[in-house]
Design goal:
Number of strands: 13
Structural class: alpha/beta
Number of domains: 2
Oligomer: single chain
Shape: elongated
C-alpha cells in the first residue's frame, strides 16, 4: 500500500451540483481532516447522497471543486482502491452467494485482505454458501460493509447504510463499523438521519440543509462553542457582540436561544446551559428551514451562508 496521503479526507470549494434548475448542492466549502469519523446529517433532500456520490466519482459537479484524499474523485484505479463505498440500501447481488461476493471483491481489488473478509464474515455469522437474496437486511448490510472494508481503504463512505435496519441489526452494524475503522486506521463519512448513531460513533459533524453546509467541525469543539441561553422574554434581543443566535423560541414569560460564539461566551445575567448534539443539529436545521433566528454575529466553526 502507498504511503498515507497528507491531504484532507474531503476538501470542497464552491461545490455545486444542479439537476436542471434545481440545486442539490450550492456553493459548499468543506475541509474535513483525515482520521475522523464524520457524521453527515440533514433532512431528506438536503443533498447528503449527492455529496457522497460526488465524493465517489459517480456524478460530477456543476461548479466548484472537490478533492478526496488529495485527488479528484475516482481519479484512477489506484485512487478507487483507496475509497470504500457502502451505498444506500446496501445493494448486493441477490443471485450471488456470500462467497461469490468475496471472490468478486478479491478480483476487483488488488489490496484485498482475504483474511479480514473471511474473519468478519464468520464473526457476523454469515454462511458463505447462502445467496445474498436470502439474507436479512442486517446481514446484507454486514456483507456490504465487509466488502468495502476488505479493500483496506483509507476512506470509508457510507450513505445511510443502517436506516432500514431494526435496532439490534443497526447496533451490530455500527459496532462493526467502529471495529473496521480502528483496524484499518481509516477515515469514515457516515450519512445518517439517526442522530443517536451519529452521537455514538462520530467525532466530526457536518450539518447539510437546504443544499448548503450549515455548520461543520469537531463535535467536541462545536458543543463547547454552542450554548443555550434562558432569559425573561425580550431580553435576548440585546445580546453581547460576538454571539450568534442560531435558534430562538419564546413562551409568554421567557425566551430560550441556542447561540454560538467564536471564542468564550461573554458574561451574561442569564441562565447558560450546555447543548446536546440533537439541540445543535435541530437549531441549524430550523434556521435553514427559514425560521427567524435573531441577529447574526460572529461565525461559529465553519458556518456557511
Amino acid at each position: 500500500m502507498p504511503p498515507e496521503s497528507p491531504f484532507p479526507a474531503l476538501q470542497a470549494e464552491g461545490l455545486t451540483k444542479q439537476y436542471g434548475k434545481r440545486p442539490a448542492l450550492a456553493d459548499c466549502d468543506l475541509d474535513v481532516p483525515r482520521g475522523r469519523v464524520v457524521g453527515l446529517v440533514g433532512p431528506n433532500g438536503a443533498g447528503k447522497s449527492t455529496l457522497l456520490n460526488l465524493a465517489c466519482g459517480l456524478i460530477t459537479p456543476t461548479a466548484g471543486t472537490l478533492r478526496v484524499l488529495g485527488s479528484p474523485p475516482a481519479a484512477d484505479a489506484a485512487h478507487l482502491a483507496r475509497v470504500g463505498f457502502v451505498a444506500q440500501d446496501t445493494p448486493v447481488y441477490g443471485a450471488f452467494t456470500v462467497a461469490d461476493h468475496l471472490r468478486m471483491g478479491a478480483k476487483l481489488n488488488p489490496s484485498w485482505d482475504r483474511s479480514l473478509a473471511d474473519r468478519r464474515i464468520a464473526q457476523v455469522g454469515l454462511n458463505p454458501k447462502q445467496k445474498a437474496g436470502r439474507l436479512s437486511g442486517g446481514q446484507r448490510a454486514q456483507l456490504a460493509l465487509t466488502i468495502a472494508a476488505a479493500k483496506r481503504p483509507e476512506l470509508l463512505i457510507l450513505d445511510e447504510p443502517a436506516a432500514a435496519l431494526d435496532p439490534l441489526a443497526r447496533d451490530g452494524f455500527m459496532q462493526n463499523l467502529m471495529e473496521f475503522v480502528a483496524e484499518l486506521g481509516a477515515s469514515a463519512i457516515l450519512s445518517s438521519h439517526l442522530l443517536g448513531d451519529v452521537e455514538r460513533v462520530c467525532d466530526y459533524l457536518i450539518v447539510l440543509c437546504a443544499s448548503r453546509v450549515q455548520v461543520a467541525g469537531e463535535v467536541t469543539d462545536l458543543l463547547a462553542r454552542h450554548h443555550r441561553l434562558v432569559a425573561p422574554r425580550g431580553e435576548l434581543d440585546r445580546l453581547p457582540a460576538g454571539v450568534e443566535v442560531i435558534r430562538v423560541r419564546h413562551t409568554d414569560e421567557r425566551s430560550e436561544a441556542v447561540v454560538g460564539v467564536a471564542g468564550t461566551l461573554p458574561r451574561t445575567p442569564w441562565s447558560v446551559e450546555p447543548v446536546s448534539l440533537e439541540d445543535l443539529v435541530l437549531a441549524y436545521m430550523t434556521r435553514a428551514a427559514g425560521v427567524p433566528a435573531g441577529p447574526a454575529g460572529a461565525p461559529v466553526g465553519e458556518v456557511v451562508r
